[in-house]
Amino acid sequence: MNLAKQGYAAYEASQSDVSKTGGSEYNSPDNRPQGVSRPSFNHDEVIQTAEQHGSGDSGMFSHAMNYVKNSTQEHEEPIDEEHVTNSHQEAYERGNAGSLSAGSMGSAAALQIFKQFTSGSGGGGSKSELISMAMAEASKLFDQSGGAASGSKQDAVNGAGMMVMKMLVQSKMSSMMGGGNSGGLGGMSGMLSLASKFM
C-alpha cells in the first residue's frame, strides 16, 4: 500500500539524517532531510486572513498555527481518507456537522476548502491562503453547528490546520516517490492529488 511505503521511506530518510543533527535540533523542520520538508507559511498573514474570514480571534488561529508547526510527528501520520471523506459528507451534504467530534469537523472543513480551491472557486491558492481559509471554515462550521459532539472550537481549528499540513507534506512525499503513477490506492490517493496542486 502506498501510504505504508510512504511512511517507511520517510522513516528511512529521517534515519539517514541522524548523523548530521543532534538532540532536539533534529526535530526542527529546518533540519529535516529534504524528502520530508515542510511547507512554510507566512504566520502573520495566515492569522490575519483566518481572522477576516472566520469566526474566531487571532489568538485562536495563532494557537492553531503553533500547534501545527510544532507537532511535526503528526505531519507524516497516514490520513484516514475514508473517515475524512465521511466526515465531509456528514457536514456538507447531510448538514450534520454537529454530530462530529471537533477534530473531524476540522478535517471536513479542510477538505471542503481544498475542493473549493482546486475547483477554482476558492479565489487564489497560495499555501498560506489555503491553511487560513481551512481554519476559518472550521471556526464557522463549529458555530453554525452549535458546537461539536466533543471537543472545542480550538480543537476544530487545530484539526483543520493539521489536515492541510498533512495533505501538503504527504502529497509531496508521494510525488517524490513516484506515488502518482504507482497504482496503490488509485495512484496518488484522491485527497493527496488535490494537495499536490499546491506543491
Short précis:
The protein is mainly α and 199 residues long.
Can you offer a commentary on this structure?
By secondary structure, the protein is mainly α. Helix content is 60%, strand content 0%. It contains nine helices and no strands. The chain has helices at 2-16, 43-53, 58-70, 72-75, 81-92, 102-118, 127-144, 153-176, 190-195. The longest helix is centred in the C-terminal third of the chain and has 24 residues, at 153-176.
Write the layout of secondary structure elements.
Layout: H1 2-16, H2 43-53, H3 58-70, H4 72-75, H5 81-92, H6 102-118, H7 127-144, H8 153-176, H9 190-195
Helix pairs in contact: 2-3, 2-7, 3-8, 5-6, 6-7, 6-8, 7-8
